Amino acid sequence: MARYGMALDYKNCINCKACESACKEQNGILLGADYHRIWVGVREIEGIFPNLSIGSSSFEPSQCQQCDNAPCQEVCPTNATYYDGNGVVRVNPDQCILCTYCMQACPYDARYVDDRTTTVDKCNFCSDTRLIQGETTTACQATCPTKVRIFGDLDDPDSEISKVLRDREYRKLKEHLGTRPKLFYLT
After folding, report:
1. What is residue 122's predicted lDDT score, i.e. its pLDDT?
2. What distances in angstroms separate CA 56 from CA 21, 59, 160, 173, one per listed residue?
3. Reading across the β-sheet that carries 149-153, which strands appear in turn?
4. Which residue, 3, 63, 101, 160, has most beta carbons within 10 Å?
5. CB atoms within 10 A of CB 34
6. Cα-atom radius of gyration of the chain, to the nearest Å?
7. 99-126 per-position pLDDT tens digit
8. Any idea where the domains of the chain sit in the sequence?
9. φ, ψ of residue 89 in degrees (nearest 5)
């Protein structure tokens, strides 16, 4: 088994929304549904007028952080949220009772109510669409024209993601919470 993660070279993001469109198409999500599965956020402006700054990139792609210590999984009363054999945080729609505890527990706001299935859902790295068919990339990575996303097996030292994480500095979001996210923002 693999242990999947994703590195985001977010400074290359041009906010074209190709990743969002590909994800929604791959997973049957309505195109107008904001913050469903993946999204591109706009970073906040920092400073006091007239000395304002957006930083090195104004766009920040995001999605479920695929935490090794996922608060959403811990609070699920029916075990609908679980880890699969590849360490991916998944949702079993047959067990979800729509209590929304997972939505409240997620510090990344990565959970949403899927009106089609009446469950709380999230990104699962295309586990039930692409990976199960033998693909080695997610829809968002395969579509990105500026190569923002690098997906792969964190336990394989020869995988592209492992090499990038060895060679580049990165940060994790809200690391102080102890969630141990497997999304890495390359700096």
Report:
1. 94
2. 25, 9, 24, 17
3. 149-153, 4-8, 183-186, 170-171
4. 63
5. 7
6. 16
7. 999 999 999 999 999 888 889 999 999 9
8. 4-186
9. -75, 120
* Cα 99–chain centre separation: 22
Tokens linked to 27: 């997973």
Can you list the residues of the chain whose pLDDT is less than 50? Answer: none
Locus of tokens 């790295």: 125
122-to-55, 91, 119, 138 alpha-carbon distances in Å: 28, 8, 10, 14
**What is the four-CA torsion angle of 37, 82, 147, 164, rounded to 10 degrees?**
150
Q: What are phi and psi of 70, to 5 degrees?
A: -80, 115
By CB neighbour count within 10 A (0-12 exposed, 13-18 middle, 19+ buried), where does 45 fall? Answer: exposed
Position 163 scores a pLDDT of: 97
Write down the architecture of domain 4-186 according to CATH. 2-Layer Sandwich (3.30)
C-alpha distances in Å from residue 129, one per residue of 27, 47, 152, 175: 7, 43, 16, 29
